[in-house]
Amino acid sequence: MALAPTPPPPAPQRPTMRHSSAFLLPSPAPGGGGGGDPDDDAATVALVVLNQPLPRFAPRLWSRAAVRVCADGGANRVFDGMPELLHGGQDPDEVRARYKPDVIKGDMDSVRPEVKGYYSNLGTKIVDESHDQDTTDLHKCIDFIAKNSSVANKSNLCILVLGALGGRFDHEMGNINVLHLFPNINIILLSDDCLIFLLPRTHTHMIHIERSIEGPHCGLIPIGMPSTSTTTTGLRWNLDNTSMSYGGLVSTSNIVEEDKVTVTSDSDLIWTISLKN
Ligand SMILES: Nc1ncnc2c1ncn2[C@@H]1O[C@H](COP(=O)(O)OP(=O)(O)OP(=O)(O)O)[C@@H](O)[C@H]1O
Ligand SMILES: Cc1ncc(C[n+]2csc(CCO)c2C)c(N)n1
Questions:
Q1: What residues flank ligand 1, with Cβ below 6 Å?
Q2: Core-most of 50, 180, 232, 260, by most CB within 10 Å?
Q3: Which residue stretches of 160-224 are H helix?
């Protein structure tokens, strides 16, 4: 007697993780004060400034953050860049006192001595890890936020990283690697032109599109590992149980069509979306 075919195992049920870029809005949308979840107005923002030109929205995000950490030469960018961004004839030292980093951390080969001394005198904590030449300054800063800062234990922590994209390709890849090193922390890499975050495979992702400030161009990229099955909704070119890999298909130059995009995958994926100027 023929046996009945064994039914395929049910697809794993994943919890939903919600994402929103409402933190970039000039004034927060109702309930959109933080980073990860648009309905979670208690989300806690930590800011990391890298050694790249400050994005135009840096002052706004600085004001929203609970802790501000400069990665080594990122402190030079705050020292030089905040007075420039705010122009309007304000006294540079008055601006610098208002935009004082809580911490400068890194291997300290890029922060200028006078900048380090200036902020140290204002009370900034300086963490010199010049002995560690195996992890990047961004990695060191995420470690600091995860282990030592006042926001470390917040379940709704969102770390915004300024100046992570554009510039040197080895640094960009190192910055993206940090997303894969800390898959359980909500980290968003930002430039003036786009943002990037990781979609861990443990969840289905519901990405709320803030159309006034982001899109329509987007991408879904399996940087860390290939994916045998990714399914999306809300995109012009949706994936339906589709494989993606470097050397095969990766979803670049896609377009968001709906206010909500959903993504489910068997691999960690990078989500990226363009920012409007
Ligand atoms: N051109 C860039 N593009 C993207 N990220 C950058 C760039 N330059 C610096 N960063 C980021 O800012 C952090 C601090 O930069 P900094 O220049 O102080 O690093 P660094 O370790 O001295 O770099 P290196 O010695 O490789 O030149 C880096 O860890 C990196 O995450
Ligand atoms: C295989 C390997 N490649 C590169 C480096 C160099 N490196 C990586 S992170 C870092 C610190 C930058 O502030 C430096 C110098 C290394 N150690 N190991």
A1: 50-52, 71-74, 106-107, 109-110, 136-138, 164, 167-168, 171-172, 174-175
A2: 50
A3: 169-181
